[in-house]
């Protein structure tokens, strides 16, 4: 492929929600657009009831088993979950439907998110809520309260899921200023990476000093602004090296580097290997 495909939720639904329940033995999705590595412009949540499966996301294989909750953020590169031996739920949600407090939890970690393991009561509650949501989702959408009902039930699931992760991560929904800045910086970084690589630019967009932004990020993550910019540039480059046919020079230019030699030196500095060597190693 020349670049990494982006799947749009509006191509599946005009309602901002795509919901389905899958079971062991269901026909396997054979659409190559789904099977190949891709990004989504929306959140995806998985609730695994029983069985086991796995998911490759940004070069990490995530193992999922019965009684687990997991989510994928917009733009993270992944392949279809291998769920032939699982029962569970798939929930695709437009980002605009995710309450801001929930986004603070889901997007608050600069590192890859971890699966959350339910206790028996939590799994029972989630299954009941999702079953009701699916039942209402499949009803007649001519009902004037259809959208209100669906969105209320969806919001209940999202806030419950965020609550689980909030407690799991030891965070607090009364977000501190450093934590709030970290979340805002992460969102900006994804959106602005190709055009802005200067810590000062991000500080300016967030209306804080560069020193304060770095101090906030260090407090929450242990690393300054420059580190995370380099990490995001490198991760995006890895995605393009592995999943696309673009040359190193083309990748450098697509990431906003006018000097592809500088990009190559940065990649080697961060990863310890050249871009070409990385592509050859991972495509063996």
Explain how this protein is built:
47% of the residues lie in helices and 16% in strands. By secondary structure, the chain is an alpha+beta fold. It folds into two domains: 6-169, Jelly Rolls (Sandwich); 177-282, Orthogonal Bundle (Arc Repressor Mutant, subunit A), CATH 1.10.10. The strands form two sheets. Strands 2, 4, 5, 6, 7 and 8 form a six-stranded antiparallel beta sheet that branches. A two-stranded parallel ribbon has the order 1-3. A hairpin with a 2-residue loop joins strand 4 and strand 5. Helix 2 (100-106) runs parallel beside helix 4 (146-169) and helix 8 packs across helix 10.
Outline:
The protein is of the alpha+beta class.
Write out key terms for the chains shown.
Arc Repressor Mutant, subunit A; 47% helix; 11 helices; 2 domains; Jelly Rolls; 284 residues
Secondary structure blueprint with pairings:
Layout: E1 6-7, E2 17-22, H1 32-35, E3 39-40, E4 43-57, E5 60-65, E6 68-72, E7 86-93, H2 100-106, E8 116-117, H3 120-137, H4 146-169, H5 177-192, H6 199-205, H7 210-221, H8 225-243, H9 248-254, H10 260-271, H11 275-282
Parallel strand pairs: 1-3
Antiparallel strand pairs: 2-7, 4-5, 4-6, 4-7, 6-8
Helix pairs in contact: 2-4, 3-4, 5-7, 6-7, 8-10, 8-11, 9-10
